[in-house]
Amino acid sequence: MQRRTFLAASTAMAAASMIPVDAGAQAAAGPTAVNLLTRPWTGPYGGVPPFDVVKVADLKPGIEAAIAAELAEVDAIANNPAPPTFDNTIAALERTGKAGDRIGTIYDIWTGTLSKPEVRAIEKEIEPELAAYNDKILQNEKLFRRIEAVYDARDTANLTPEQKRLAWWRWNNFVRAGAKLTPGAKARVAEINKDLAGLFTTFNQNLLADETDYVLYLDEKDLTGLPHDVREAAAQAAKEHGKPGQYAILNTRSSMDPFLTYSDRRDLREKVWRTFYARGDNGDAKDNNEGIKKILKLRAERAKLRGYPTHAHWRLDDAMAKTPEHAMDLMMRVWPSAVGRVHEEVAEMQAVADKEGARIKIAPWDYRYYAEKVRAERYALDMNDVKPYLQLEKLREGMHWAAGQLYGFEFTPVTDAPVQHPDVRVWKVTRGGRLVGLWYFDPYARTGKRSGAWMNAYRAQETFDGQVTTIVSNNANFVKGAPGRPVLVSWDDGITMFHEFGHALHGLNSEVTYPSLSGTRVARDYVEFPSQLNENWLRTPEVLNRYAVHYQTGKPIPPELVAKINKASTFRQGFDVTEYLSSALIDMKLHLAGDADIDPRAFEKDELAKLGMPAELPMRHRTPQFQHIFASDGYSAGYYSYLWSEVLDHDAFEAFTEAGGPYDKAVARRLHDNIMKVGNTVDPAIQYRAFRGRDPDVKAYLRSKGFPA
């Protein structure tokens, strides 16, 4: 997933042009330290973020000064006495927001990966301010009239296709935000956005607190079944939490998942499972259920004010799917096959448990554990045999190599760019000797870092007023091993690494003029397509033979083990798809319910029962911990996007296999020219047709899962 950006913190309408840089902004910013957070980045590579001079106390005054300057600059554009043109209105807006982008990058990193109490206090204060200022821009009537005039005249104004797209994009953002509403309705929308900003922040901080505060400490006797690398990671985690000599299972997915997969202690598996899936739902001061009720009510009211029947209809209006009905149709086409496969998987696991004399009925905390036993029995494949070949650093090298083969990139580590934490490293990215951008890598879990994996764009690519190279980052939460020991990751973790790197490649390949249309700034249900497509290259022999090497012997992964992995590629797809799809369906159902009074716990339980959700597994993200949809507007009524994009992904990868292989140069060139480099300058459906020669076909996705096509 992509981490939300600073500019999306207030509303999903936020664009690349929220806070400008000008002499006034720098003067208003006050102390030199604050100026460093807002003024143009200096140093090599076209300038780098000044992470080495950041002081938390400077964030709020710097943001507020930039907001004030932005509003003044927008007023200047809105009140320009000259007739509106593309240059004095649309292009002028593109020139705003640079200081906000810069300080927003820093703010987002600190709130997402270095969140200490003083940072969280600032976040609570600043998010409502950001929402209010965002609405002041999007509800500026004079500014909208100028934008609409340019939009209406776009076909007769001698504009380039990209300029026409940008004029539409600006106009559409303002209309969807409520630019045509009555003054009273605009005021209420602004009030709602401000309230939502505070609720999002509280939701996120509650969840982070539960992930931080709930740690299970174990002794040696409690570790039966755990592989050596998992034990080492747990020992290191305990040491970092001030408990040397013990073993810590953190309340994060990267720590929970391997424990549930390998621990022989069913009692402890249940404890870890219940703690993880109760995040945000413990009935205490950090419980998220009341906040969710308020968020849903406010979203429903806002959608009606904007002229949409529900929040889901508003969210999908400018998505590739266009309507919630289209998204639901796709999900429900897949759902029965996924659930049917779960029942088959549970039956197989129950048979193994019965054969062992376990005298249990498969429960959710048993699924991963017994699935591994079935995998070993059916495919003679123990994923513990795979893990020694999956070193974090070697996989990172493999990602870079594959990107070089597909897109001509070269990655060179650099040390002359300051970083926000010692764990973060930086690479210079070039193509044919020309600087493309920088790639920051922040792979390890730590206190104050949100869970999961994501990509950030620190700086967008553009050529508007000169060549500006992009800066992107990938972030993960691997548990750091003992000093000097390689970090071994699971096969699923390897897939996630390639996925998030796909987002980075989308940004690095961008070759557009205007920053608002750059890189990954595309429709929500299209942005996951390049990232999911990139997952496929982990499986290629070219990557596995070079980079899946044993951490002790250095020998490549044996061909027979790779054959077993490929043969088992559809294994446990019932669990994987149902776990994800149940979350996507509940997300959509919550936001199609309009202004109904919803008890999140009861709604989740009742709707899953109606869907026939198997009792042996939970949603991937239970409602009170569903950051995608309640920590911002980002993926709200949009979690279906992963399925939508995966349909594109499997259909697109078949273009490579049909042409003779995953590194076919002609297909890679089509992918680059029609999708990876164009950002949002072309409608996504047109992009895909230009690449594939037709619309996507869902059959490739169904085949990949082993479901009936």
Detailed description of the structure:
This protein is α+β, with helices and mostly antiparallel strands. Among the domains are: 6-138 and 140-177, Neurolysin, domain 3; 214-277, no CATH class; 388-567, Neurolysin, domain 3 (Orthogonal Bundle), CATH 1.10.1370.40. It has 29 helices and 7 strands. A 5-stranded mixed sheet has the order 3-4-5-7-6, sandwiched between helices. Strand 4 (425-431) and strand 5 form a beta hairpin. Helix 27 runs antiparallel to helix 28. It is globular and about 85 Å long. Mean pLDDT is 93; it is low at 1-31.
User: Rg, please?
Assistant: 25 Å
Summarize the main sheet: 5 strands, mixed
Approximate strand percentage: 5-15%
The SS-based structural class is alpha+beta
What is the name of the CATH architecture of the domain at 388-567?
Orthogonal Bundle
Alpha carbon gap, first and last residue: 27 Å
Spatial order of strands in the largest sheet:
3-4-5-7-6
Supply the CATH class of the domain at 388-567. Mainly Alpha
Shape: globular
Continuous helix count: 29
Q: What is the name of the CATH topology of the domain at 388-567?
A: Neurolysin, domain 3
Q: Kindly state the mean pLDDT as a whole number? A: 93
Q: Provide the helix percentage.
A: 55-70%
The tally of beta strands, per DSSP, is 7
Unreliable parts: 1-31
